[in-house]
Amino acid sequence: MYGFLNDYSEGAHPRILQLMLEHNLEQNLGYGEDVHSQRARDYIRKLINQPRADIHFIPGGTQTNLIVISAFLRPHQCVIAADTGHINVHETGAIEATGHKVVAMPGVNGKLTPEAVEAALKYHRDEHMVQPKMVYISNSTELGTIYSRTELKALHDLCRSRGLLLFLDGARLGSALTCKTNDLSLEEIAELVDVFYIGGTKNGALLGEALVICRDDLKTDFRFLIKQRGALMAKGFVTGMQFEALFQDDLFFQLAQHANLMAERIAQAIGACGYRFYAPPCTNQLFPIVPKALLPQLSEQFLFSLQEEVDDDHSVIRLVTSWATTEEAVAALIDFFQRHRA
Amino acid sequence: MYGFLNDYSEGAHPRILQLMLEHNLEQNLGYGEDVHSQRARDYIRKLINQPRADIHFIPGGTQTNLIVISAFLRPHQCVIAADTGHINVHETGAIEATGHKVVAMPGVNGKLTPEAVEAALKYHRDEHMVQPKMVYISNSTELGTIYSRTELKALHDLCRSRGLLLFLDGARLGSALTCKTNDLSLEEIAELVDVFYIGGTKNGALLGEALVICRDDLKTDFRFLIKQRGALMAKGFVTGMQFEALFQDDLFFQLAQHANLMAERIAQAIGACGYRFYAPPCTNQLFPIVPKALLPQLSEQFLFSLQEEVDDDHSVIRLVTSWATTEEAVAALIDFFQRHRA
Amino acid sequence: MYGFLNDYSEGAHPRILQLMLEHNLEQNLGYGEDVHSQRARDYIRKLINQPRADIHFIPGGTQTNLIVISAFLRPHQCVIAADTGHINVHETGAIEATGHKVVAMPGVNGKLTPEAVEAALKYHRDEHMVQPKMVYISNSTELGTIYSRTELKALHDLCRSRGLLLFLDGARLGSALTCKTNDLSLEEIAELVDVFYIGGTKNGALLGEALVICRDDLKTDFRFLIKQRGALMAKGFVTGMQFEALFQDDLFFQLAQHANLMAERIAQAIGACGYRFYAPPCTNQLFPIVPKALLPQLSEQFLFSLQEEVDDDHSVIRLVTSWATTEEAVAALIDFFQRHRA
Amino acid sequence: MYGFLNDYSEGAHPRILQLMLEHNLEQNLGYGEDVHSQRARDYIRKLINQPRADIHFIPGGTQTNLIVISAFLRPHQCVIAADTGHINVHETGAIEATGHKVVAMPGVNGKLTPEAVEAALKYHRDEHMVQPKMVYISNSTELGTIYSRTELKALHDLCRSRGLLLFLDGARLGSALTCKTNDLSLEEIAELVDVFYIGGTKNGALLGEALVICRDDLKTDFRFLIKQRGALMAKGFVTGMQFEALFQDDLFFQLAQHANLMAERIAQAIGACGYRFYAPPCTNQLFPIVPKALLPQLSEQFLFSLQEEVDDDHSVIRLVTSWATTEEAVAALIDFFQRHRA
Description:
The structure is a homotetramer of 342-residue chains. By secondary structure, the first copy, chain A, is an alpha/beta fold. In chain A, 39% of the residues lie in helices and 17% in strands. Chain A folds into 2 domains: 2-7 and 252-339, Aspartate Aminotransferase, domain 1 (Alpha-Beta Complex); 14-249, Aspartate Aminotransferase, domain 2 (3-Layer(aba) Sandwich). Chain A has 13 helices and 13 strands. The mean pLDDT of chain A is 97. Chain A binds chain D through residues 70-71, 74-76, 98-99, 127-128, 130-131, 221, 223-228, 232, and chain D through 70-71, 74-76, 98-99, 127-128, 130-131, 221, 223-228, 232.
C-alpha cells in the first residue's frame, strides 16, 4: 500500500533526528530560551532579512492560528478568511472558542481576493455587526494553490489602507516557496504580511511551526499568550532543534522541493491521462476528479482521501506528497492512472 | 555547572529515541489513530486494569488542564484547587481564559484537604456565585508532596457524595508513584479519580501527557475538545511512540525511581547538615531553606530556582532531580552543603 | 414626520405603565422572585398549558440568545441558523463571544428549512469540525415571514430524530401569532420547540423577553447562567410587572394584532399600487422594493430603513408598524404610495 | 413588616416616572441615540466638567463590570480587586466568563489599598502568570465604606505610574458622594479614575447605570462591546430618560442623601445601644453585629440579610436603607434595638 494521504505520516527527516540525538543529554533552558531555539531564530531572521523579528516555536497549526488571532483582536473584531480556509472549517471552532467570528468569503481556487475582502468590509458597517480587523490567508492554500507576488501585494495594500492585519498561515509554506510557479521569496512574504508562520510538521519535522512577528507593536507580551493557550512547551528546545536543523542549511527547501517534484510528476501523468483537476495542480496537494467507479480499485493499492462529490459519477480526491514520498510510490500511482485513462 | 533547575532540561531517554528511530520512516495514520498510540493505550489500560478507559495523548500539561476543565464544566461552574495549584498560579490564567473561575483554597503542604473543599462548598451557596463542580489536585504536588491512599480516598468520597468531579494532574505522577512513602498504585488512582493524566514531559519523554478518562459519561466527544484547543497533533504517533516505550516495560517507573533516589540522597545529606525544608522532602522536588548569604556561592556551581523568601535572611530554593540527573552532580551538591552546614 | 423605523420607538402601552404605577412604592423581592413575576409566569404557563415550565424574564433579545445558546452547548458544539438569522449578522458576534460558531445556511424567505439543517449535519462529519447541536429559528423571521405548523413540525421532527435542540427566538412572536395566515398556537409552539421566548420589547413593553424552558433537563441551574451574563436584574419585578400586564388578559395579542392590521393595510395598498415585495408581507415588517429615485421624497415625510440594494435602480426598504402606529400615519403612507405608483 | 433588605425593592422615584409618562408616546431613536439620553449625557458631562466624556447607559451593574473589564484587557491580563469586591464573589464568575482572572487581595474594610496592589504586582512577575492591568474598586464598597480623596489619589498615582487602568464601580456612588465623611466630588472622581459608573438601579431608577469613559484611548468602538454583550437596549431612551430625571436637577443627590440620613439615624441608635459594627457605618449599608438569639425576633418585624457568622453566638447582619425608606420604618427599627440593648 502506497500512502498519499497526507504529508505528516512519517517521523522526521534523518538530519533533524541526528541533531536531536547529538544534543540529547545536554541540559537546556526551558520554555524556548535555549541556544538551539536562539540559533534557529537567527537563521530565520537572516533569511527574511529582519534582524529584529520575534520568532516563537509553537507545537501545531491550529494552536498557532488561535493564539495569533485572539492575541491581536479586541472582543468585537473578526477575521476574514476564504470559505475553504482552515480556520473556517477544519479547526472545530477553535477561533470562535476564543470569542471571535470567522467571516468566510467565497474564495477563488482557495484564495482570498481583495474584492472579497472589500465586500466583507462593506457589509459590516455598524456596531450591530462584528468589525473586520484581520485577514487570514494560507500559502499554499487548502486547495494546494499559491499566491503570486501581485496577489499578495494587492492584499497587503488593501489591508494597509483599511487598517487590517494580514496573517499568513504557512503550514505548507515550504511547498509554496519551492513551487515552480512561485515568484515570492520568504523575505518578500515577511515584508508583505504582519505575521506569518513557517510550517515544520508538514515539511519534515516531528512537530512545530515557527511563528514570525515582524511588526513591533504586535510583539508585546506574546509569550504570555502562548503560555495561556498551553503552547509554551517545557522542552521548547525540541522544536527549536528541529528548526535549527531545517534552516542551518537549505534542508527546509530541499524537503519541500522533493514533495513538489513528486507531485508534479503525478499531476503531469494524470493530466496526460485525460483527468481534470478541481484546482490547478501546483504544490504538494493534488485534487484530481475521478470516476467514483474507479475508487475501489484505487483504494486497494493507495491511501488517499475523498474531498467531495462533484456529480453523481465523479468525486474529487486529494493526493498529497511529502519529503518522504518515494519514487517507487509515485511510479506505481502513475502506472495505475495510465492503466485507467479518463 | 550542575543543573537542578527542573526535570525537563534534557531530551528523551535513549530507549524512547530508539523506538522512534526504528519506526521513523514507517507511514502512520494521523491524529493519534496510529498503532503506536493504540499499543501505548493498551499498556496503560492493562496497568490500571480498566480495559475500557479512554486515553488521549496531549502535548503539554497546561493544555491538558485547560481541555479537561473546560470539557466538563458548564459555564457557571468552577474548579476548586489548592492555592499553590498549578492552574491557580502558573498557567497565565489558562483556565479563566476558557471561562471558568479557579477557586483557590489554602493547601496543606501543597495538598487540598476535604475540609478546604467543604469550606468552598459551604461558601458558594446561590446563583450569585459560581458553582463548584470539580476538584483539581496534583500528585505529586507543586511542593513535591504526595497524597496517601487515605487522603485520596477521603477526597474521592467527598466528591462522590457532593457530585463533584475529581481531576488529578499527574505531570509528576511517576515520581509520586515511586516515592518511598507512597501507598497508592496506578490502578487505585484510576479507581479513585474521575480523570487524570500521566506525565511524560517531566519523566523522560520529549513531550506528552497521557490523559485517562475512566468514567463513560465523560468520554463523549472528547476528541472534538482536544482538536478545538489545538492539541490533536497531526503526528500523534510521536507522543504515542514515546508512551509505548515508557510502558511496554517498566521504563516509566525506572526513570521516576532514579529521580527520586537522587533526590532522596540530597535530602538526607542536606537534612544531616542541619537544614530545614519548606515542605517535607518526598519526591524529586526539594525545597530546602537556605541563608541568602549562601546563594551566590551556590549559584556559581549549580542551577536551581528561588521559590520564595521566608525571612530577611533566608530563602526557599527549589532543587529538582530527573531521570537524567547524574550521581556526579548529586555528589557535588552534597559536597557543597557538607562544606556549608547550617 | 411619521415613523415606520421599528417597533421600539415609543415607551410602553399605558395599561402596562398603569400597573407599574399602582405598585411603584410596594416592596418587592429582588432578582425575579417577586409576586408580579410569579403571576406573569403563571399566566404564561396556563396559556401554553405547561404548568411546570420554567420562565425567566431577561432584559433584551441578544442577551437571551447568548444565554440560551451558551447554556446548552458544550464548547465544541455549534448552532445552525438561517443566513439572515439575527444571531448570525446583527449581534456583533455575541454568540461567538461565548465560544460557539454559528453555522449559517441559506434561508428561504428568512426561514430555515429541514433540508438546510440536513445539509449542515451532513457536512459536519468528524472531530475536525464543530458539532451541530442546536437549531435557531425566529418567528416571525427577520424578513417578517412566519413558520406554518407543518414547517415547524418538520423542524421539530428532524431535531428530535437527530438529537438537536430547537430554539425559537420570539422577539416578534406576538406578531407571528396574530398574523392572518398563522396556524400555530402558543401552546403548540411550546410543544414543538425545546426553548423559546416571548418578546416584550417589540410588543408594547419598556423592555423584557419572557424565556420559556419546557424540557426538564434544560432547567438546571439556569438562574446561574442568567446572573453570569449580567441579566438577573435587581429589580426583576420591573419586567415581571410588564408581562403581568401583557398576559393578565389578552393585551399582548391585542397589541400585536394592531401592529399587524396597520401593516396589512399598508401592504395591500402598496401592492395595489404595483410594488413588489422582497419577502411576502405577513406580519408587522414589510419589505417593498422601491425605485431609488423615490427615496428622497419618501424620506421627507417618513422614517424607514434601507434593507439592501436589488439593482442599480431599486432598493428594498423596511417598514415596521407597532402597537403604537396610528391610523393617521398609515393613511399618510398609503396616500404617498398612491401618489407614486410603481 | 419593614424592609431593610436592599435598596432596590421599590420601583422608581415618582419624578422619574413622571418624565417617562410625559414622553411615553413620543417616537425616539433606538439604541441610546435619542434626545433624552443625549440630555442626560450633557447633564453628567457638565457635572464632571468633562465635555468630551463618553457616556453609555447600561441596564445593570454586573453587565457594566463585565463589559468594561473585557473591553480593555488583552487575553492574558487580569484585574485586581479587594477580596470582598463584587466582581470577585457575587457575579457568578461573570468576569472569568469573559476570559479574565480576578486577582483578589485582602481588603481593609472592603477597600483596596495601594500596598495590596503593589503586592499583587510584585507577585505576578513573568509570562507564566497573568499580567495585572486594571484595578477595580467600588465606592461605596460592598461593606458600605468609602474612599477618601487621599486614598483614591494614592491608588490613582500608583495606577498611573505602573500602567494600570483604574475602574470604579459606582453602583452606590450616590450614597458615597452624599455621605457625611466624604471629601470627594464627582468631578474629582472623574479626574482620578479612568472609567467609572454612576448607579441608577440602587438610587431611585427602575434600572440603569451610567458608564463614564474619560480617557480618549478607551472610547474606541465601545458601542460594539456593549452590543456584543447584549446591553445595547433597543429602547435605550428608557434608561436615558431616567438619568435625565436624576440629573436635570439634584434629584440623584437628594435620593442618596435621604438613604444616608436614614442609615445614620439607625447607626447612631444601634451604636448607642451598645452594638458594634463589622465595618464602620458610613453610607446606606450597615453591618451591626448582633446576638444570634436576637435574630428570630428581629425577623418577625424586619427584612434584612445575614452577612456572616462572627462567632458561635454572634452574626453580622446587613441593613440597607434607600431613597424610599420611611421615617416610620426607621423609628420602628430603632425602637426594636432600644428594647434589646447589647
